[in-house]
Specification:
mainly alpha; 0% strand; globular
Amino acid sequence: MHQHEAWFLSLVVELPLLVVMLYPYDVRRVVLAGMVATSLTHPVAWWASGLLAPAEYLQGILIIELVVWATESLLLRFMLPAPWTVAVACACLANMASMAVGWLI
């Protein structure tokens, strides 16, 4: 899978989940926050994962995803603004879902 395909897949999986999980918020703001978060973190995560050796892949992906999760949580927190607990939970679930779909494909 190429980077632009993976980015598009991330958006297709994560945006509907964020809209549902963040229902009380304006849909346009949620979609914008989700697009900004994914568009900022995805290229960096893709680049960093390409640097990993096979022996360090699992640990490296875990660290990369933790950094993505923290970054996207911050962005959701301040762009919506959502409470910390909501931002952290939504960012975690959305990223877990897109990563799972990406691995299945």
